[in-house]
Amino acid sequence: MGRAVRITALSWLTVLVVVGGWWDPSGAQEQAPPSGSSATLAVTPTDGAVGADVVVELRDWPDGPVFVGSCGNEARRGSEDCNQPATRSVLVREGRATTRLRLAAPPIHCPCVVRAATTDGELVRLAPILLVGVPVGPPVLPLAGRADAEDLEVRAGTRAGDRGVVDRILPLVAGPVRTELVVRVRNVGAEPVRDLVVTAAVGRTRREAAPLGRRTVPEIAPGASTTVTVPVRIDGPTWGRYEVSGAVYGLDAPVYFTVPTRVDPWLVEAMLPIVLLAVAWAARRRERRTGADEPPCVPLADSSPRVGDQDEGRSRAAAYVPPIASAP
Asked: Which of the residues in the chain have pLDDT under 70?
């Protein structure tokens, strides 16, 4: 009897909990991540010059890495219209992410946009931006039958170029550096390669890289090669390791290159001991001048009041006899 009552009570309690909404089976399950259909991309401000920073906000995106970059041609051809070396990755957590993006010159003319895309390219969002200094041109649509990236051989390096005496001395004292980027492009395929665009940037990292402009190669015949030179300037103070990076566009996939370079201001290191010795010498000289302006030190015997003449070590003055107090 008692057992039947307990079973009946448990049954009614279960009904009340489920029907009354005290327990929601769906709420106990982990919520699914955003599907991406409502994903948004916002850029602040909506205009800026090359090298300026903008704030990029992602909302309702699937969790994971997202690539963000500045693009021309309204990104009609996808990432090909974007500056790949300046593109950065941001990690989305709980559907949200905020990052700063340094605007870089795209490999093609504007209208320009900021493009955000997942690693698989399934989710893409665009935000228009007015990129000051980049010309506006007609839309360029994707072309079928582009040359294979494997048909292009790219070699890059740096050289001193034509520099004056001052330009050669300034890097030795951590001043600005002037050099040249040399990109040699060779067509190893059987068909001509047309309308190539070479872009480059320089900085300690790709995120901090400053754009160096772009160069256009109209055509390269099979087996032929061409050389593209881009002036490179690194503003002072300069020291340590830098990276000149870039890409060649116009194929079915971009071809990237990186040239590490280093600035050693050894003249500053050599001059440092000399500067320290000069400072020490100046301080010592100032100390000596300060001591010369003070009155000379006088021995205590010469500065004491004269008590009497000395005669063979004994004074001729009368000896001091203390008075004797009289008895009361």
From this structure: 1-36, 143-145, 207, 291-328
**pLDDT tens-digit series, residues 130-179:** 998 888 988 887 766 577 788 889 999 998 877 777 777 777 777 888 88
Q: Are 216 and 185 in contact (CB under 8 A)?
A: no
Q: Which domains does the chain have, with CATH numbers?
A: 40-132 (2.60.40.230), 149-264 (2.60.40.3880)
Question: For the CA atoms of 242, 173, 51, 250, what is the dihedral angle to 10 degrees?
Answer: -40
Q: Which residues contact 34 (CB under 8 A, 6 or more apart)?
A: 60, 61, 62, 95
Other beta carbons within 10 angstroms of residue 97's beta carbon come to: 20
Please give the helix or strand (H or E) that residue 230 lies within, else none.
strand 225-234
Query: pLDDT for 220-253, tens place per residue?
Result: 999 999 999 999 988 888 888 999 988 888 887 7
**Phi, psi of 138, deg, nearest 5:** -75, 160
Q: Is 106 helix (H, G, I), strand (E, B) or coil?
A: coil
Q: Where are the beta strands (DSSP E) in 133-222?
A: 152-159, 177-187, 193-203, 210-220
Cα distance between residue 180 and residue 162, in whole Å:
9
Rounded CA separation 194/80 (Å): 15
- Beta bridge partner(s), residue 117: 67, 124
Kind and range of the H or E run holding 71:
strand 64-71
Residues 115, 68 contacting (CB under 8 angstroms):
yes
